[in-house]
Amino acid sequence: MPKFYLTTPIYYVNDVPHIGHAYTTVLADVIKRYKRLRGFQVMFLTGTDEHGQKIERSATKQGLAPKQLADSMVERFKQLWQILNIDYDHFIRTTDEEHIKGVQKIFARVKEKGDIYLGEYAGHYCISCENFIQDSAEETADGKRTCPECGRPTANRVKEKCYFFRLSAYGDKLLRFYEENPDFVTPRSRMNEVVSFVKMGLRDLSVTRSTVKWGVPVPGDPQQTIYVWFDALSNYITAIDYLNESERFTALWPADLHIMAKDILKYHAIYWPAFLLAAGLPLPKKELIHGWWLQDEKKMSKSSGNVLDPHILLKHFSADAIRYFLMREASIGADGNFSHEGFINRINTDLTNDWANLVSRTTAMIEKYFNKSFQDQGLYTEKEEDIQNGYLELEKKVLDNFDQYQFNRGLEDIFEFINRLNRYIVDAQPWNLAKDQANLPRLAGVLKTLARAILSVNTLLSPVLADTAAKVRAIFNASDVALGWKKLPETFVINQGAQLFPRVDSKVFFGEAETSPPPTAAPEVSDQGLIEIQDFKKVQMVVARVLEAQKVEKADKLLQLKIDTGSDTRTLVAGIALYYKPEDLVGRKIIVVKNLKPAKLRGILSQGMILAASDADDRPYIPILPDDTPIGAILK
Ligand code: ME8
């Protein structure tokens, strides 16, 4: 069996997983299942990137040691991958002992060969990108510079001894490699970007830090730690036993496919091949670069505050529904825009109306007219032949698209065919055929054709709809998982199962989704962000006492409070339940905005808003006033 070694990026642990991470990982999982269907033995690697100043700072902010933060985040990632049915073979953490030793080994090897040398760096540093910034970068008013990668101001100027990688020596070698392997980076537009970048000339790269403690120590110079990207990229080889260069390593390396979004293209398509060339190792075969998931046309990222939590979707929809949406809506190379409305429409139309309905209509008719199984041969016409040929054409087209990782196009074709099958039912009118005993062989011909078409399409869908495909096979008692026009099992009995994609009430779904809305535009303010006192006075803030508090059913984040504002008693709903228990608040005096327009949250009318400070992670801190503060007192 040919092997296929497939990787996702290893994700930073300062961020909880969001739909962007889910997309890359689902894509990798779909590729794994597809390649398996095509006869490959697949090794699928994912994991977490845990070293560096960014993680260290994030941990300190939360009062944790970096490893503690990493441990808790790793659980979040693993849990989400389990729910999304991600069948990875190995989860690597850069804090794994084997990885650390492997990184030190490749570092030492490159150094031995003379491509890592000791020098000194003087300049600015971007903590977010963990990169030194050239002095030519734009300067801000306070003498800092803005990072050309992320646009954030850099930390103060630093001067430090560090080791450099002789990247400048690899420009020509890389260009030759790209020329000989024009599909190394796909899509082609991304390959062109890489080539232009390299042609502009490469400077040596600093690959250690003396100021960062949370990292892999440099062998022989433990005052220095290895640059996070040198550390992180090495995961692709350390995970398969580069340390011992065992048979496993030689069997799996080079990787067949690295998957990522365009943000980290440069690291994977320039630095990584250069490090490997320097270490005398073969280069990965292909890198698949996908676009961004955007919300409101902005890249989803924690710092923009517009990340979409996949758990909200998972409360109402199956993993397969989410996997399908992600694969159907995004085309490799282009950005995808996420909207809840688009999501629910896509699922209700394709999966509930078209696919689940086709399966349930067909099986219901087989049950009704043939008491769950066929005994006789069917009578077939040209129409059935058309369906079979139509399927064979479809399969060819879909495999072509899937081979190029164009899952959206393949799925589009599959659903066109599903619609054709639904039209075929209307056209054949099985309910009329059933009225006359003489037409039973014909009816059997129609329903058997539908059953065979469903089972065949089911296999094409199986890389994406992994759970559902197994359910459909169980309904038909079929065990064949191979491609092709399916035969029906010898003893053919329908097992009616639960509905495949129950319709989700959009009102319930939106009620929940609205509890984590994207940030709304800031109110109009004058030039320097200043407001008039009249503007401030428009907001009526008073002291209120919490009379009762309880959790809102099926909404993890919400607490429902009954409060006394001095002039009335009212209900508030606040997104604080992850951090405050009802008993923390009952009897306490808090500040509420009284004249906020009421809003319905999960069907409960919230009349006003509780005031709370929130940190960068959106954790609320509610100011509790002294017991003797009078209820109804106005804040002004
Ligand atoms: O960059 N849309 O980790 P990271 C689509 N640790 N994909 C997205 C996305 C979005 N809005 N946001 C994130 C790192 N991703 C490094 C990688 S690898 C040796 C080291 C996905 O947690 C996408 O795959 O910032 C992107 O490349 C990756 O998450 C970045 O993850």
What form results from the Cα inertia axes?
A: flat
CATH superfamily of the domain at 340-493: Isoleucyl-tRNA Synthetase, Domain 1
Placed side by side, the strands forming the largest sheet appear as 3-2-1-12-13-7
Question: Could you tell me how far the N terminus lies from the C terminus, measured between alpha carbons in angstroms?
Answer: 74 Å
Regions with little confidence, pLDDT below 50 for 5+ residues: 516-528
The radius of gyration is: 29 Å
Which range best describes the helical content: under 10%, 10-25%, 25-40%, 40-55%, 55-70% or over 70%? 40-55%
Main sheet?
6 strands, parallel
For this structure, the CATH topology of the domain at 340-493 is Isoleucyl-tRNA Synthetase, Domain 1
CATH architecture designation of the domain at 340-493: Orthogonal Bundle
Number of helices: 21
Short description:
This protein is of the alpha+beta class and 636 residues long.
List the helices and strands and how they pair.
Blueprint (H helix, E strand, L loop, with lengths): L2 E10 L6 H19 L3 E9 L3 H9 L4 H18 L6 E4 L3 H16 L3 E11 L4 E3 L21 E11 L5 H10 L4 E2 L1 H12 L5 E2 L1 E2 L7 E2 L2 E6 L1 H6 L1 H4 L8 H6 L4 E5 L3 H15 L7 E4 L2 E3 L2 E2 L10 H7 L2 H11 L6 E3 L1 H31 L11 H22 L3 H22 L1 H4 L6 H22 L4 H10 L30 H8 L19 H5 L3 E11 L7 E6 L4 E6 L7 H4 L3 E5 L5 E3 L2 E3 L2 E2 L2 E2 L5 E2 L12 E2 L1
Parallel strand pairs: 1-2, 1-12, 2-3, 7-13, 12-13, 14-16
Antiparallel strand pairs: 4-5, 4-6, 6-8, 9-11, 10-11, 14-15, 17-18, 17-20, 17-26, 18-19, 20-23, 21-22, 24-25
Helix pairs in contact: 2-3, 5-6, 6-10, 12-13, 13-15, 13-17, 14-15, 14-17, 15-17, 17-18
